[in-house]
Amino acid sequence: MTYELVLPWPPSINHYYINTGRRLVLSAAGREYRDAVAVALSLVFAGTLEGAVRMEVDLFPPDRRRRDMDNVQKALWDALQHAGAYRDDAQIKSFACEMRDVEPGGKVVVRLWERSEP
Fold it and tell me: What is the DSSP string of 32-46?
């Protein structure tokens, strides 16, 4: 079964965490994003993918600024793990990502499913 989520545009990884001097902690923007992902996930399925996970992502940036996909990936994967989509992002064995056209406000469309083979 494939699960599809439409999520808000995440904060850049540069704004997802803040350095307190002694350690790296989740920023307010990071906490808000994580909470939004948890709500969206709860509307699609209850449970946790246990096996190898395949993920496809379509990125619809909020504007035409130049962006690196990997700045979105870390925040997205961490938020999905925290929300309970899977136990650990090490379960992700296949990942495909495409940058799409600008959409005001931005959004991320994620499709997840368990692979039948490891």
Answer: HHHHHHHHHHHHH-S
CB 8 within 8 A of CB 32: no
- Residues 6 or more apart in contact with residue 96 via CB below 8 angstroms: 55, 56, 57
pTM for this entry: 0.90
Instruction: Say which CATH number the domain at 51 has.
Output: 3.30.1330.70
Distance between CA 106 and CA 9 in Å, rounded?
A: 5
Residue 91 domain boundaries: 3-114
**Number of domains forming the structure of the chain:** 1
In which residue ranges of the chain is pLDDT below 70?
A: 117-118
In whole angstroms, what is the distance from residue 109 CA to residue 25 CA?
26
Residue 38 and residue 67 in contact, taking contact as beta carbons nearer than 8 Å? no
